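Second attempt. The first submission of Methylthioribose-1-phosphate isomerase had a stray character pasted in from the spreadsheet, which I only caught after the job came back as garbage. Lesson logged: always re-copy from the clean sequence file. Corrected sequence (359 aa) follows.
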Amino acid sequence: MGFSTIHLSEDGWSVDILDQTLLPHEFKTVRLTTMAEAAVSIRDMLVRGAPLIGATAAYGMALAMRQDPSDANLQDAYDRLLETRPTAVNLRWALDDMKAVLKNCAEADRESAAYDRAAHVVLEDNSICFGIGEHGLKLIRDIYQKKGGNAPVNILTHCNAGALATCGLGTATAPIYLAKIDHIPVHVWVDETRPRNQGAALTAWELGRSGIEHSLITDNTGGHLMQHGMVDMCIVGTDRTTASGDVCNKIGTYLKALAAHDNGVPFYVALPSTTIDWTVNDGVKEIPIEERAGEEVTQVRGLTADGTIQTVTVPPVTTCAANYAFDVTPARLVTGLITERGVAPATRDGLKSMFPEQA
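This time the job returned cleanly.
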């Protein structure tokens, strides 16, 4: 991909992340040296995407243990990192995983154990992304062959579930990248994904760097394209998947699923097993939906004609904005769940068949 979202610095203990709030116009890494800095990077979305949030939290725990490996600081670091983002379950998964490892270590061993485990989280996510890509590639190949093998596969995605959201190829984009390697022509409809414009700023940036054909569209264009047969499939990511197959993703995903269902367009969700929350059954009723600052809705950041980057306010300055960051797509609207082990029906039994040891 030509970039790394998170890695250890050359000093062997601090952590370098790519500041995604500055993309696509600035490419800058930020060095994390404390758990508090890791927490801020998650809360303020310098890093984002469920898998990458989990990896950053894991390294945040390592930084905490380097500073103070006591039981009290272990619990404090866990609590402070957990409260940064309420919706993405990878955050809790990574923190639970780290805590389980570290609580059984002597304090003198916790720092090295934490760094080892955090590195494992990163490597595991890389492997999971590749597995998702392989299984999703089969779906793209099938559509390509049904089209006669002489026309691009048109894929609509929403938000950024790409390499920038993970430690590897991404989730929703992994099949797309492998399709390019497999010489299957793909064209991606990239939703702008308001209010933070992750599609316009991040997915378009990624795909452009990788030579993937794509077109940026407004968030409300997808239904029109589907009505006119211009979308062959949808692939999106998810920040939390219930045991029954409901998926929670960036706000607006539900509307795309409704349009896909109405027009007979396959709607797939790509997810690592770490985003499955086996404790939740009804996504609409049980998943907490993060509400973020209204300024994300009222303000837009971009590159001006003279080359400067500025933030401007769009509505009247007295206007208040509601900013719900996620919505839930019911399992009945999901064609299939693309996991690292295969494509599962969006049902409890489907997920159990893929991950019996977890269920």
